[in-house]
Write a structure and sequence with these properties.
Structural class: alpha+beta
Shape: rod-shaped
Radius of gyration: 31 Å
Strand content: 15-25%
CATH topology of the largest domain: Translation Initiation Factor IF3
CATH class of the largest domain: Alpha Beta
Length: about 180
């Protein structure tokens, strides 16, 4: 048995251990049931559970959660649409999110999946410096799916100290007016 202050008390019968815990207005908690003899401790169990949950919340705050974003392409995509969607994928990757890029096939397009493969290869070619391929393109049902993750080198090389007007939540047309003392 271990006391409330952390000192070893020794081997005691269960009834005596319970009496000591009640006298201290604390709980008798079995710490190690598989050892011979089992190890028990006198503690405030409610406080112990609260501290454990507090530590778990702190660990969860420090954890970095990676978001999964998605972008859908079509096998017969127009050039402007392709550039527009690829620009958005690049923004997602630069912000640290993983991106699921998929080409959706409809009807007779399913017979020509090579066009979808060309679109995905072109996306990787455009974003080669920003991303790494986490999962190669594979056909799942009527979609060809590929997962891209941000490149670690491009994340670290991005300057963090500089902010533009959009990041500061300033109105787009705002100007700083400097008054002269002569007026």
């Amino acid at each position: 048995m271990i006391g409330a202050d952390g000192d070893q008390i020794g081997i005691l019968p269960v009834k005596e251990a319970l009496l000591r815990a009640q006298d201290a207005h604390l709980d008798l908690v079995e710490v190690s049931p598989n050892s011979r003899p089992p190890v028990c401790r006198i503690m405030d169990f409610g406080k112990f559970k609260y501290e454990q949950s507090k530590k778990a919340r702190q660990a969860k705050k420090k954890q970095h959660v990676v978001q999964m974003r998605a972008m859908r392409y079509r096998p017969k995509i127009d050039e402007h649409d392709f550039q527009f969607k690829t620009r958005h994928v690049k923004e997602f990757l630069e912000k640290g999110s993983k991106v699921k890029v998929f080409v959706m096939f409809k009807g007779r397009e399913r017979a020509h999946t090579e066009y979808g493969q060309k679109v995905l290869d072109r996306v990787v070619e455009e974003l080669g410096d920003v991303c790494t391929i986490e999962q190669e393109a594979k056909l799942e049902g009527r979609d060809m799916i590929m997962i891209l993750s941000p490149n670690v080198r491009s994340q670290k090389s991005k300057p963090k100290g500089k902010e533009n007007a959009e990041d500061k939540n300033e109105p787009v047309g705002s100007q700083t007016v400097q008054e002269d003392g002569d007026r």
